[in-house]
Amino acid sequence: MSHDLLRLAHDYLESIGRADELGGLRFFADDVVQVEYPNRLLPNGATRDLAALRDAAERGRKVMSAQRFEVVNAIASGAQVAVEAIWTGTLAVPLGSIPVGGQMRARFAIFLTYRDGKIVRQHNYDCFDPW
């Protein structure tokens, strides 16, 4: 089971990079809860349900022209997967000192909880490189 969940986690992150189905929404259970802890882009953090994740994915498609995850480490235990990844995003709009076409980088810690092969809980700790 751990191997299957690790594969699902990798597939999920790859789908975000392909902008597949609005950033991998097909990987979520209908009752998913995603928590993004405070970071430079969201100083107050955010808690999202499936509808809010869909909205965030739509907004992201307007801001990012491309993005990818490099998985540095991943481990599964029971129904949970922890992923350490380096995220690189190419901007479709300027942000701070980064012009259109410029890149942002961040190190992400992503914790996923699965039920029946779908993500029911996701916690993100996003640490952006300075810009």
What attributes does this structure have?
131 residues, alpha+beta, Nuclear Transport Factor 2, Chain: A, 6-stranded mixed beta sheet, globular
How do you describe this structure in short?
With 131 residues, the protein is α+β, with helices and mostly antiparallel strands. It has three helices and six strands.
Describe this structure in words.
By secondary structure, this protein is an alpha+beta fold. It has helices spanning 2-17, 21-24, 50-63, and strands spanning 28-36, 46-48, 64-77, 80-91, 103-115, 118-128. It is globular and about 45 Å long. 21% of the residues are buried.
SSE layout:
Elements: H1 2-17, H2 21-24, E1 28-36, E2 46-48, H3 50-63, E3 64-77, E4 80-91, E5 103-115, E6 118-128
Parallel strand pairs: 1-6
Antiparallel strand pairs: 1-2, 3-4, 4-5, 5-6
Q: What's the β-strand tally?
A: 6
Structure classification: alpha+beta
Instruction: Please tell me the CATH architecture by its name.
Output: Roll
Main sheet: which strands, in order across?
2-1-6-5-4-3
Point out poorly predicted stretches.
none
State which percent range the strand residues make up. over 45%
CATH topology: Nuclear Transport Factor 2, Chain: A
Distance between the termini: 40 Å
Give the CA-based shape.
globular
**How many domain units?**
1
DSSP summary: helix tally: 3
Summed over residues and divided by their number, the pLDDT gives a mean of: 94
Helix content: 25-40%
State the order of secondary-structure elements, H for helix, E for strand. Answer: HHEEHEEEE
Radius of gyration: 14 Å
Largest sheet: 6 strands, mixed
Give the CATH level 1 class.
Alpha Beta
